[in-house]
Amino acid sequence: MQRGLSRRDAMKLLGAAGLLAMGAGGVPGLSRAFAAEGEGTPQRGGRIRVAAHSSSTKDSLDPAQGSTAIDYCRAYMFYNGLTQFDPGLRPQPCLAESFETTDNGSHWVFVLRQGVTFHDGKALTPQDVVYSIMRHKDPAVGSKALSMVEQIDSVRALDQRRVEFNLSAPNIELPSVLAVSHLVIVADGTQDFSKGNGTGAFRCQEFSPGVRSVGVRNENYWREGYPHLDAIEMVGIGDESSRVNARSPATSR
Is 162 helix (H, G, I), strand (E, B) or coil? Predict the structure, then answer.
C-alpha cells in the first residue's frame, strides 16, 4: 500500500499468495491455465516439495495467525473460503455456491454448498461460517485480519444453508475480502488448530512448526476431480542458495 497499491489490490495479492499451491490441486481455472502452457492435461498422482523463504517455530495452522507466504499456502491447502479468487483475481463462489447483496452492499446473503464436509467428517453448516468470521473480532484471537472484519457488524444463520452478513457501511468488495486466506472457514468452536481440520483439497498429515508440513489428498473433497497431486510437502529455508538446492522435481505415476 505504501507503494501505491489500493486496498482492493492488496487484498487480492494476499489471496494470490496461495494460488500456486492450489493450482496443483484446488482451483480448476488456475490448474487448467498452467496445463495450457505445457503439454496435455493435468495428470493425477505424484507429490511436490515447496521451499518457502521463511518459517518459524511460531507457525500455526490457525488461518487468523497467518503472516507469511507459506502460511497463506497452508491455509488454502487445508481450508476453503466462502469465495475464492479466479486466475484473474476476481472473487468467485467457493463454499458459498452463490451470494447477493442489497442496500448497495451493506447487506449480503451467502448460500452454502451442500455435501461439503470437514476432514473429520463433520458437515459444513452456517454456524461454522458465523464462528469463523466473528472470531476475528475477538482481541484474544490476535487475528491479522481484524481490520478487514471491523466493517462486519453481524453474521447470522438464516436457515440451514443461508448466512447473512450486515456491514457498518456499504462495501461491494466483501466477496474479495472473504477470499483472503485469513478468512477461510473452520469448524464451529475450533480451539485446537494443530490438525488443520478444514474442507480443503488436502488433509494435514504432518505439521512441525518451523520445520515442515505435509498435506495429502482429501479423497472426500467436494470439488469433483480435484486435487491432482497425492501430496504437497512444504518447508521453510531462509538461505536462497540452500532453498534452490533443496528443491526436488515433481514425481508422478
Answer: strand
Q: What is the pTM of this model?
A: 0.82
- Sign of the torsion angle spanned by Cα atoms 115, 61, 83, 89: negative
Q: Are 199 and 188 in contact (CB under 8 A)?
A: no
Half-sphere exposure of 132 (CA within 13 A, CB side): 30
Backbone angles phi, psi at 234, to 5 degrees: -120, 130
For the chain, give the longest Cα–Cα distance. 54
pLDDT, one tens digit per residue, over 231-242 is 999 987 655 555
Burial zone of 209 (CB within 10 Å; 0-12 exposed, 13-18 middle, 19+ buried):
middle
* Alpha-carbon distance values, 103 to 90, 106, 163, 166, 226 (Å): 22, 6, 16, 10, 37
Q: Give the model confidence (pLDDT) of 141-182 as tens digits.
A: 999 999 999 999 999 999 999 999 999 999 999 999 999 999
Domains of the chain: 7-245 (3.40.190.10)
CA distance 179 to 83: 5
Q: Is pLDDT above 80 for 2?
A: no
* In contact, 30 and 223? CB cutoff 8 Å: no
In whole angstroms, what is the distance from residue 40 CA to residue 170 CA?
Answer: 45
pLDDT at 30: 45
Q: How far is CA 223 from CA 5, 12, 114, 133, 164, in A?
A: 33, 23, 11, 23, 24
Alpha helices (runs of H) in the chain, residue ranges in sequence order: 7-16, 19-23, 28-37, 69-78, 126-134, 146-149, 174-177, 240-245
